[in-house]
C-alpha cells in the first residue's frame, strides 16, 4: 500500500531550484505617478527641441521643383499628347527657366519626379530578371520578364522585363546664362548595385527593339554596371510618387540666379496621366526638404507635455496611495455598505 | 464483494451485479463439488470455494463508465464464429488457421519509413494546418504567386517540422521502451522443457512460466501454480494502479499437472480480444471435459506475480491484443473555456480578413476599370504582348477574373490575420506551464510520494476561472486511511484512554520459530479493553469480547502477507485487502491479540493471545449493496459452526434478534449515534451459532444456488439472507477516516476566493454533516436546510418551502449586513432520485445557487455527475470535480475540470482526470496560484497574438492601397514569413510561461484575487475591441509616418520595407515589454534578443545579392531620417496606450494592480507606517 515501501527508489520530490519554483530574481517595475510624469515630461523635453531642430534643418534645405509635362506639351497637341510623345518627328526640346531662391551649396542633387507611376505595381515589380543582369551566361533567364522577354525572333532581350523597358529617358541640360553647368552623372547609383547586381561583363542586347518603345535606349558598348541611369531606374521606388536621382551639380548656385533647363521631353507619362517634375535640391542630415518630422515631433512633444500636466492635476486632486489594501474590491464593498 | 464499506454502497454495486451475471452466463459451468475437501474433516464438510472467489475478485471493482461498453462484449455468449481457439501447448496448430498476433508490442506509432507519410497525415487532421496548406497551395498557382516558393512553404514547413520533431522524439522514447519490453526474457515451454525466450517471440498457445515478482509477458490463462490449491496472487499496479493483491486461480482440472512433467493439452475457446480488463469469458476442453473460465482465471500482461513461487499459464492474447495494450488510450480531451472564446474572436478576425480582402479586390476592380483604356501600353501594366506574331493579352483574364484573383491573393498576403501560430504557441506554453505545475514542490505529496500530474494538456487556464468545486468526501477530504477508534461491545462503550505505541517494540506481537511477527500498522488501543481482551475466563463479557474480535479478524477477505524487515528476527504482517475499513478492523483485532496470520482458500489461522487457532472457512457471503453486510461461516476446531455477520447499522438491526437483549441493542444504538455524529464510520457485528441441521440446509441450498445457471446472484443473496438472521448482537466498531491535512484551511481559502464548494458523498448524512463541520464547510452560524424525501410530491414541497426560507433569510441577512449567504443545503440521494431529470431540477438549482454550501449524501456515482450537470448546463460558470474513487469517475468526466486524488482507492479517478495530485489541499495552490497565473498568461498571450498579427496585416493592407491594389509588399517576403516565426515568436511564449502578475504569497494571502479569472477580467470582448482599436492606431502610425516622411523622395521599396519591418518588430516587442510584470533574465533575453535577432535577420537578408533589397538596410541606416523615423514611430504608437493604461491604473485600479503595488511597497510601507500615519491623517 505504502508507496515508499513499494518503490524503493528515492523520493520523487521535485528538486528545488528558483527556476522550477518560478522564483527567479526579477525586476518588477511599477509605474508610480512620479515615473509617469517623469516619462511624459522627458518625452516632451526631448521631442520639442528635436522637432524644432528638424524644422530648422528642413528650412535650410533649398529645393527647386518644376513641373514640365504639361508646359512642355505644345498647344497643338494638348488634346492628343500621346501622338506628340510617340511620334519620332515632333520636337521634344523644351526650355524652362528656374530661379534660385537662396544660395545652394554643392553638391546639388538633380532629381526627376514622377507622379502616379506605380513602380510598385505587382506586374511591374516582377517583370525583371536579376540573374540576367548579373551574369552574361544567364541571358536566357527571361521567364519572369514577360511580356518583354524575347524579340520576335526569339532572341533574349538584355536587360529584359518591364522595368528596364520603361527606362526614363528625358534629359536635362542646365545653363547659367550661356554657360553650361556640368552635371556629374557618376556615382548616382548605389555602389553595391554596381558591384554585385549589375555585371561588368553584361552588355545590353536587343534592347528596345520591339514594336513598342517603352523608354530610353542603352549604349550597347557599355556594360550594365556602368549604365547608372538604368541602375537607378531599376531600383524600384516604394511609392507611386517618387523621385530618382538624375545627377549632381558640383558648383554652388547663388541666390536669385536664373538657370535655364533644356529638357528633352521623351518620356511618355501622358498615357497614364502622370506628372513629370524636375527638382534641384541640396541635402543635409535630414535628407531633402521635409517639414513633416518637425511638425510630428512638435505635436508629440506638445501632447506629452499636456498629458503630463493633466496627470499632475489628477494626482494632486485625486491621490491614491499605492498598494492600499482598503482599495481592494472586497474591502471597498464592505466599506460601502 | 470485499469492499465492505457499508456507508458507501455505491462503488461496488454495479461491479457486484455484473460479476454475478457474468458467472451465471457460463452456461456450461460444470464445476465439480468438493473442490477442496477440508483436511480436519470431522464433519466431512465440503464447500465450493471457487465460485465465491470468482465473485470476490471480479465484482470488487467499481466499473467506470468508460468500461461499460467493454462489458457488454464480455457478457455475450461466446459463439463459435467469434471465438478464438487456443490449443494449449500447441502454438503451431493455434496459429495455423488464424495468425494471431505475436507478442512483440509496438506502442511506437511510426517506423523509419512510415514516419513521414503517417506523421504528415496525422498532422493535417488539424484544421489550422489545413488552412496553412490551402494557402500554400493557392500560392503555387502562377496567377496567384504572391510569395516565392520557398517563402510560402516555410511557415507550414517549420510548423510541421517542429511538430514532427516533437512526435519523433516521443516515438523514439516509446520505441526504446518497446525494445526493452520486447526483449525481456521469459520462460516458455518448448519440447517439454522450459526455456528462456524473448518476450516478443512468445506465441499464442504457448505455455509460459512466471516466477514470483516477475511481470507477465502476455495475457495467460492460469493452468497451475506453486500453491497446491492453484492460487496465485497478482498485483495489478501497472494495469489499474491498484497496489493491493488480487487472487487468481488455476482450474481444478489443470492444477495438478505440472507442465514439463505431465503432458498437458486442451483447447481454450475464448472471446475476441477486447479492452475490458475486468472481464474474460472462455471455456476450456481438457480431457474431454468442458470447464468454464472467468476473469479470475486469467492474468493480464503487466501484472506482477506476488507471494506465489511460480505460476504457469497458456498465452491466449499476445502483443497488441492483450488487454493492457488495448487499454493504452490517451487522456480525455477537453477544450478550455478560454480557447472556446478565443475561437469566437478568431471568427471575428476572419471577418476582418474577408473585409480587407473585399476592399482590396473591389478597389482593384475599380482601378482596372478606370484605367481600362490605358492598360494596354501603360508601362507598369502592359496588357498587350507584342513579342509574338499576334498581339495578345498578356496575363489578363478579364475584369471578373482579375478581381477574383485579387481576392485570393489578398487572402494569401493577409493570411496571418488568423494567428495560426497561436495554436502552436499555446501548445508550447501549456507544456511549459504544466512543467512548472509538476515541478511545484508545494504540490508534492510526501506521504504518498506523488507529484502533481498534468494529464490533460489543454485546459491549464481553466483552473483560473473555476466557480464551483464538487468534492467527494472519502479519500478526498479525508485520508481514507481508516483507523479503528472505538468499540461498543455488548452495550459497553470502550472509548476511553488510548495507549499509543511508539518505536519498534511496542504493540502486540507473536513469536513464530524464534522470530517476532508484528502487524505492520500500529493501532491505538483502549487500555481497559486491552486488559479485558487479555484475560481469558468464562465470564460472559470476556466471551463476548472474544467473539467480537474473532469476528473482526475472521469476517473479511483480508490476505495476510508476511514481509521481511531489515531485522532478520522480525517480520511484519501486512494485511492486503481491497477495503480500507476491513484492513483497519483486522489491524485492530491484531492489536488486541487476535492476529490473523494465514488465509488459504479453506481455512484461516488466527493467533489468539499467543495461541494459534485454525478455523475452517465453510462459506462466505460477499458484501452487496442490497444487504449491505457480509457474512462468513466458520468451523471451529471443536466442530461447532458459527456465522459471523458484519454490516451497516441500518441493515444489521433488521436481522438482529432484539429479544435476546433489548438493552444492549438500545445502548449500542446510542453509541452508534454518538460515533457517527463525530464523523466516524460505524459497523455492526453480529453472530449466531449454527446447528448441524441448519448448516446442512444452508450447505445444500448454497450448492444449488452456486451451481445455478440462471440468476445465480439472486439465489445466493437469498441463501445469505436466510442464514443472516436472528443474530445476537456482538457490538459495533467505529473507524475514523481522518480529515486530510489542511482541508479546513483549503476550504476556507476556496470560499474566500468566491468558489462554492459542494460535497457529494455516499456517506451517511450524520457523517457527512460532521465532516462538514470539522472541515469548516459548515459553521454553526449557518442555517441548514435538510431535504430527505421519499416521493416526488414531498420533494417538491420541501424544495418550495426551502426556497421561501432561503429567500427570507437572505433578505434578512442583507438587511443586517451579515455574512451574505449563510444557508447550507443538505440533501440526500433518495430525494435527488426524484429531483434530477425532472422539472424540479430548476427549483433545486435556484435553491442551491442561493446556498453557500451544498452537501449531498448517499448519492450514487451517476447522481454526482447529474449534480455537476445541473450547474454546468444552467450557468456559464466553470466547474471542477475532485475525487479519488471509481464512483467519482462520472463526475470527474462531467465537470469542466476533473481532478483525481491519487490515493488509496485505486486509480480509476486519476485515469479519468485531467489533473491528479496527492492531497485535497493542493487544490489551493493549483487553482489560486497556478490557475490564476495560467489564466492571466494565456489570456494575455491570445490577445497579444491577435494584436501582433493584425498589426502586421494592417501595415501590409495600407501599403496595398498605394500599389494600385496589386498586393505588392514592400516588406520582403522572407521578413513576413519570419515575422511570426523568429521576430516575435519567442517573447510571447516566454511571457506566456514565465510572467507572473502576482507573487504566490499575495495570491495565497488574498484568495479574493482569484475573482479576476471568474469575472473574465483578462480576456473578454471589450478587451478584444480595445486591443483592435489600439492595433489600428499603431498600424496607422507605423505606416503613415514613414509614408509621409518619404513621400516624393527617392526611397526604394526595399529600404522602406526594411524600415517598416524594423518598426513593427520594435513596437510589437516594446508593447510586450510594457506589459511584462516580472522581468527575469529570461524575459530580458527573449525580448531584447528578439529585437537583436530581427536586426541580424534583416541584415542577412539584405546581404544576399540575389534578393531585390540588396544592401538596402546599410544605405538606410546611414541616413539620419531613418533613426528619427524609428524613434517617432515608437513614441507616437505607444503614447495612447500608455496614457490609457496609466489613467486606468490610477483611477480604476483592479485588485491585481493594488496587490501588485502592495507587494512592491509593502515592505517600505511597513517600515515607515508608524511615522506615516500621522502624516497621512490630515489628508483624509
From TrEMBL, chain A:
One cellular component (GO) term of this entry: plasma membrane
Signal sequence interval, chain numbering: none
Record InterPro entries: CDC50/LEM3_fam
Top-level taxonomic group: Eukaryota
Pfam families documented for this protein: CDC50
Transmembrane keyword on record: yes
Keyword set, alphabetical order: Membrane, Transmembrane, Transmembrane helix
Annotated transmembrane regions: 35-57, 292-317
UniProt subcellular location: Membrane
Family stated for the protein in its record: Belongs to the CDC50/LEM3 family.
Name this protein carries in UniProt: ALA-interacting subunit
Organism expressing this protein natively: Deinandra increscens subsp. villosa
Automatic annotation (TrEMBL), chain B:
Coiled-coil regions listed in the entry: none
Major location (coarse): membrane
Location of the protein in the cell: Endomembrane system; Membrane
Comp. bias regions, Low complexity: 12-37
P-type ATPase A domain: residues covered: 186-265
Record key words, sorted: ATP-binding, Magnesium, Membrane, Metal-binding, Nucleotide-binding, Translocase, Transmembrane, Transmembrane helix
EC number annotated for this UniProt entry: 7.6.2.1
Membrane spanning stretches: 151-169, 346-368, 403-424, 946-965, 977-994, 1023-1047, 1059-1079, 1091-1114, 1120-1140
Active site: 472 (4-aspartylphosphate intermediate)
Start and end residues of each stretch annotated as Disordered: 1-37
InterPro entries according to UniProt: ATPase_P-typ_cyto_dom_N (IPR023299), ATPase_P-typ_P_site (IPR018303), ATPase_P-typ_TM_dom_sf (IPR023298), ATPase_P-typ_transduc_dom_A_sf (IPR008250), ATPase_P-type_domA (IPR059000), HAD-like_sf (IPR036412), HAD_sf (IPR023214), P-type_ATPase_IV (IPR006539)
Reactions the enzyme catalyzes: ATP + H2O + phospholipidSide 1 = ADP + phosphate + phospholipidSide 2
Protein's GO biological process: phospholipid translocation
Annotated membrane topology: Multi-pass membrane protein
Domain P-type ATPase C-terminal: 910-1149
CC terms in the record's Gene Ontology section: plasma membrane
Sequence ranges assigned to domain P-type ATPase N-terminal in this UniProt record: 86-152
Residue spans of biased composition, Polar residues class: 1-11
Group of enzyme by EC: translocase
Entry binding sites for ATP: 472-474, 582, 623, 646, 681, 761-763, 858, 864, 887-888
NCBIfam families reported in the protein's UniProt record: ATPase-Plipid, ATPase_P-type
Family: Belongs to the cation transport ATPase (P-type) (TC 3.A.3) family. Type IV subfamily.
Official protein name in the record: Phospholipid-transporting ATPase
Taxonomic lineage: Eukaryota, Viridiplantae, Streptophyta, Embryophyta, Tracheophyta
Amino acid at each position: 500500500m505504502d508507496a515508499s515501501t513499494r518503490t524503493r527508489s528515492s523520493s520523487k520530490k521535485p528538486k528545488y531550484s528558483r527556476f522550477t519554483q518560478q522564483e527567479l530574481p526579477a525586476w518588477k517595475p511599477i509605474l508610480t505617478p512620479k515615473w509617469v510624469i517623469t516619462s511624459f515630461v522627458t518625452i516632451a523635453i526631448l521631442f520639442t527641441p528635436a522637432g524644432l531642430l528638424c524644422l530648422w534643418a528642413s528650412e535650410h534645405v533649398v529645393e527647386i521643383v518644376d513641373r514640365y509635362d504639361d508646359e512642355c506639351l505644345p498647344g497643338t497637341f494638348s488634346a492628343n499628347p500621346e501622338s506628340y510623345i510617340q511620334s519620332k518627328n515632333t520636337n521634344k526640346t523644351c526650355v524652362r527657366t528656374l530661379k534660385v531662391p537662396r544660395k545652394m551649396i554643392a553638391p546639388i542633387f538633380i532629381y526627376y519626379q514622377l507622379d502616379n507611376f506605380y513602380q510598385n505595381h505587382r506586374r511591374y515589380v516582377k517583370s525583371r530578371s536579376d540573374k540576367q543582369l548579373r551574369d552574361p551566361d544567364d541571358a536566357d533567364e527571361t521567364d519572369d520578364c514577360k511580356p518583354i522577354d524575347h524579340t520576335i525572333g526569339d532572341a533574349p532581350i538584355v536587360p529584359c522585363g518591364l522595368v528596364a523597358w520603361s527606362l526614363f529617358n528625358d534629359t536635362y541640360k542646365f545653363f547659367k546664362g550661356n554657360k553650361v553647368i556640368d552635371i556629374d552623372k557618376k556615382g548616382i547609383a548605389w555602389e553595391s548595385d554596381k558591384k554585385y547586381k549589375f555585371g561588368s561583363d553584361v552588355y545590353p542586347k536587343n534592347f528596345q527593339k520591339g514594336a513598342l518603345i517603352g523608354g530610353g535606349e542603352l549604349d550597347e558598348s557599355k556594360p550594365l554596371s556602368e549604365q547608372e541611369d538604368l541602375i537607378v531606374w531599376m531600383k524600384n521606388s516604394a511609392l507611386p510618387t517618387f523621385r530618382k536621382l538624375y545627377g549632381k551639380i558640383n558648383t554652388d548656385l547663388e541666390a536669385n540666379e536664373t538657370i535655364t533647363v533644356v529638357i528633352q521631353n521623351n518620356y511618355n507619362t501622358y498615357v497614364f496621366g502622370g506628372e513629370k517634375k524636375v527638382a534641384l535640391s541640396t541635402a543635409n542630415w535630414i535628407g531633402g526638404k521635409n517639414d513633416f518630422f518637425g511638425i510630428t515631433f512638435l505635436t508629440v512633444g506638445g501632447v506629452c507635455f499636456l498629458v503630463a500636466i493633466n496627470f499632475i492635476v489628477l494626482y494632486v486632486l485625486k491621490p491614491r496611495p499605492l498598494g492600499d489594501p482598503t482599495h481592494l474590491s472586497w474591502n471597498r464593498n464592505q466599506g460601502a455598505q | 464483494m470485499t469492499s465492505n464499506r457499508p456507508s458507501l454502497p455505491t462503488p461496488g454495486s454495479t461491479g457486484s451485479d455484473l460479476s454475478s451475471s457474468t458467472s451465471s452466463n457460463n452456461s456450461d459451468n460444470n464445476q465439480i463439488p468438493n473442490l477442496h475437501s477440508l483436511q480436519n474433516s470431522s464433519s466431512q464438510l465440503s464447500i465450493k470455494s471457487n465460485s465465491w472467489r470468482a465473485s470476490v475478485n471480479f465484482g470488487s471493482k467499481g466499473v467506470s463508465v468508460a468500461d461499460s461498453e467493454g462489458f457488454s462484449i464480455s457478457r455475450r455468449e461466446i459463439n463459435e464464429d467469434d471465438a478464438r481457439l487456443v490449443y494449449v501447448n500447441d502454438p503451431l496448430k493455434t496459429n495455423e488457421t488464424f495468425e494471431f498476433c505475436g507478442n512483440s508490442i509496438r506502442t511506437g506509432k511510426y517506423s523509419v519509413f512510415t514516419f513521414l507519410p503517417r506523421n504528415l497525415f496525422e498532422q493535417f487532421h488539424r484544421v489550422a494546418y489545413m488552412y496553412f496548406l490551402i494557402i500554400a497551395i493557392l500560392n503555387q498557382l502562377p496567377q496567384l504567386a504572391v510569395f516565392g516558393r520557398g517563402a510560402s512553404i516555410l511557415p507550414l514547413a517549420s510548423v510541421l517540422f517542429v511538430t514532427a520533431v516533437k512526435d519523433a522524439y516521443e516515438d523514439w522514447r516509446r520505441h526504446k521502451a518497446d525494445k526493452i519490453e520486447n526483449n525481456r526474457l521469459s520462460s516458455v515451454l518448448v519440447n517439454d522443457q522450459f526455456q528462456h525466450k524473448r518476450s516478443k517471440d512468445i506465441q499464442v498457445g504457448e505455455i509460459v512460466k512466471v516466477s514470483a515478482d516477475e511481470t507477465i509477458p502476455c495475457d495467460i490463462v492460469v493452468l497451475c501454480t506453486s500453491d497446491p490449491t492453484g492460487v496465485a496472487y497478482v498485483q495489478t499496479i501497472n494495469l489499474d494502479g491498484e497496489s493491493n493483491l488480487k487472487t487468481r486461480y488455476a482450474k481444478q482440472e489443470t492444477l495438478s499437472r505440472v507442465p514439463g512433467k505431465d503432458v498437458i493439452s486442451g483447447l481454450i475457446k475464448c472471446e475476441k480480444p477486447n479492452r475490458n480488463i475486468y472481464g474474460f469469458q472462455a471455456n476450456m476442453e481438457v480431457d474431454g471435459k468442458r470447464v468454464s473460465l472467468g476473469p479470475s482465471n486469467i492474468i493480464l500482461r503487466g501484472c506482477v506475480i506476488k507471494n506465489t513461487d511460480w505460476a504457469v499459464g497458456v498465452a491466449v492474447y499476445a502483443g497488441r491484443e492483450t488487454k493492457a495494450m488495448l487499454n493504452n488510450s490517451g487522456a480525455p480531451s477537453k477544450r478550455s473555456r478560454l480557447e472556446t472564446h478565443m475561437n469566437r474572436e478568431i471568427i471575428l478576425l476572419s471577418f476582418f480578413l474577408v473585409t480587407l480582402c473585399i476592399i482590396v479586390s473591389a478597389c482593384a476592380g475599380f482601378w482596372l476599370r478606370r484605367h481600362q483604356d490605358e492598360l494596354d501600353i501603360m508601362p507598369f501594366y502592359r496588357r498587350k504582348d507584342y513579342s509574338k506574331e499576334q498581339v495578345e493579352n498578356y496575363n489578363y483574364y478579364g475584369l471578373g477574373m482579375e478581381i477574383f484573383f485579387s481576392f485570393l491573393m489578398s487572402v494569401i498576403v493577409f493570411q496571418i490575420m488568423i494567428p495560426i501560430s497561436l495554436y502552436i504557441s499555446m501548445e508550447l506554453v501549456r507544456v511549459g506551464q504544466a512543467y512548472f505545475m509538476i515541478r511545484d514542490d508545494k504540490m508534492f505529496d510526501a506521504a504518498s510520494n506523488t507529484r502533481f500530474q498534468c494529464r490533460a494538456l489543454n485546459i491549464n487556464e481553466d483552473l483560473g476561472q473555476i466557480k464551483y468545486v464538487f468534492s467527494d468526501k472519502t479519500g478526498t477530504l479525508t485520508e481514507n486511511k481508516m483507523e479503528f477508534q472505538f468499540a461498543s461491545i455488548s452495550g459497553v462503550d470502550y472509548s476511553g484512554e488510548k495507549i499509543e505505541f511508539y518505536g519498534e517494540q511496542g504493540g502486540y506481537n507473536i513469536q513464530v520459530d524464534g522470530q517476532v511477527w508484528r502487524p505492520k500498522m500500529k493501532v491505538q488501543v483502549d487500555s481497559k479493553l486491552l486488559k479485558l481482551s487479555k484475560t481469558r475466563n468464562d465470564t460472559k463479557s470476556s466471551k463476548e469480547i472474544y467473539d467480537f474480535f474473532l469476528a473482526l479478524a475472521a469476517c473479511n477477505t483480508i490476505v495476510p502477507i508476511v514481509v521481511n524487515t531489515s531485522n532478520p528476527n522480525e517480520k511484519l504482517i501486512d494485511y492486503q485487502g481491497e477495503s480500507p475499513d476491513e484492513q483497519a478492523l483486522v489491524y485492530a483485532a491484531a492489536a488486541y491479540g487476535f492476529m490473523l496470520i494465514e488465509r488459504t482458500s479453506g481455512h484461516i489461522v488466527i493467533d489468539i493471545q499467543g495461541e494459534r487457532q485454525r478455523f475452517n472457512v465453510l462459506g462466505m457471503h460477499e458484501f452487496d449493496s442490497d444487504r449491505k453486510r457480509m457474512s462468513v461461516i466458520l468451523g471451529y476446531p471443536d466442530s461447532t459452526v458459527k456465522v459471523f455477520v458484519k454490516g451497516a447499522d441500518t441493515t444489521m438491526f433488521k436481522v438482529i434478534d432484539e429479544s435476546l437483549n433489548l438493552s444492549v441493542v438500545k445502548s449500542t444504538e446510542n453509541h452508534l449515534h454518538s460515533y457517527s455524529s463525530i464523523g466516524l464510520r460505524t459497523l455492526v457485528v453480529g453472530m449466531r451459532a449454527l446447528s448441524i441441521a441448519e448448516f446442512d440446509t444452508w450447505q445444500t441450498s448454497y450448492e444449488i444456488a452456486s451451481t445455478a445457471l440462471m440468476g445465480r446472484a439472486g439465489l445466493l443473496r437469498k441463501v445469505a439472507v436466510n442464514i443472516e438472521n436472528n443474530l445476537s448482537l456482538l457490538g459495533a466498531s467505529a473507524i475514523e477516516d481522518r480529515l486530510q491535512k489542511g482541508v479546513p484551511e483549503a476550504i476556507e481559502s476556496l470560499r474566500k476566493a468566491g468558489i462554492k464548494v459542494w460535497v457529494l458523498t455516499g456517506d451517511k448524512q450524520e457523517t457527512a454533516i460532521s465532516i462538514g463541520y470539522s472541515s469548516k464547510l459548515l459553521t454553526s452560524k449557518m442555517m441548514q436546510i435538510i431535504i430527505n424525501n421519499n416521493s416526488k410530491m414531498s420533494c417538491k414541497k420541501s424544495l418550495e418551502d426551502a426556497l421561501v426560507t432561503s429567500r427570507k433569510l437572505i433578505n434578512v441577512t442583507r438587511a443586517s449586513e451579515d455574512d451574505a449567504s449563510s444557508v447550507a443545503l443538505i440533501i440526500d440521494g433518495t430525494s435527488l432520485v426524484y429531483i434530477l431529470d425532472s422539472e424540479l431540477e430548476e427549483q433545486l438549482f435556484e435553491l442551491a445557487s442561493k446556498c453557500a454550501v451544498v452537501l449531498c449524501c448517499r448519492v450514487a456515482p451517476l447522481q454526482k455527475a447529474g449534480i455537476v450537470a445541473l450547474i454546468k448546463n444552467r450557468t456559464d460558470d466553470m466547474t471542477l470535480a475532485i475525487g479519488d474513487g471509481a464512483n467519482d469517475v462520472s463526475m470527474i468526466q462531467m465537470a469542466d475540470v476533473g481532478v483525481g486524488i491519487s490515493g488509496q482507492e485505486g486509480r480509476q479517478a486519476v485515469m479519468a482526470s485531467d489533473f491528479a495530485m496527492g492531497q485535497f489541499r493542493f487544490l489551493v495552490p493549483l487553482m489560486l496560484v497556478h490557475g490564476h497565473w495560467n489564466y492571466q498568461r494565456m489570456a494575455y498571450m491570445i490577445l497579444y497574438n491577435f494584436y501582433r498579427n493584425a498589426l502586421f496585416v494592417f501595415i501590409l493592407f495600407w501599403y496595398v492601397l498605394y500599389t494600385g491594389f496589386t498586393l505588392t509588399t514592400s516588406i520582403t517576403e522572407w521578413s513576413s514569413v519570419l515575422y511570426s516565426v523568429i521576430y516575435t515568436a519567442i517573447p510571447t511564449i516566454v511571457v506566456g510561461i514565465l510572467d507572473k502578475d502576482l507573487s504566490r504569497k499575495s495570491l495565497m494571502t488574498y484568495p479574493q484575487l482569484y475573482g479576476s479569472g471568474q469575472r473574465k477580467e483578462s480576456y473578454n470582448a471589450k478587451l478584444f475591441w480595445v486591443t483592435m482599436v489600439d492595433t489600428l492606431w499603431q498600424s496607422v502610425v507605423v505606416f503613415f509616418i514613414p509614408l509621409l516622411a518619404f513621400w516624393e523622395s527617392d526611397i526604394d521599396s526595399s529600404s522602406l520595407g526594411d524600415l517598416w519591418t524594423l518598426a513593427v518588430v520594435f513596437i510589437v516587442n516594446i508593447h510586450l515589454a510594457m506589459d511584462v510584470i516580472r522581468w527575469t533574465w529570461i524575459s530580458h533575453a527573449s525580448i531584447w534578443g528578439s529585437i537583436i535577432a530581427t536586426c541580424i535577420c534583416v541584415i542577412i537578408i539584405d546581404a544576399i545579392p540575389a534578393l531585390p533589397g540588396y544592401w538596402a538596410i546599410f544605405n538606410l541606416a546611414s541616413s539620419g531620417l531613418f533613426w528619427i523615423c524609428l524613434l517617432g514611430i515608437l513614441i507616437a504608437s505607444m503614447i495612447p496606450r500608455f496614457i490609457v493604461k496609466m489613467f486606468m491604473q490610477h483611477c480604476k485600479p483592479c485588485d491585481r494592480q493594488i496587490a501588485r503595488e502592495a507587494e512592491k511597497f509593502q515592505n517600505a510601507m511597513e517600515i515607515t507606517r508608524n511615522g506615516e500615519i500621522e502624516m497621512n491623517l490630515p489628508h483624509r
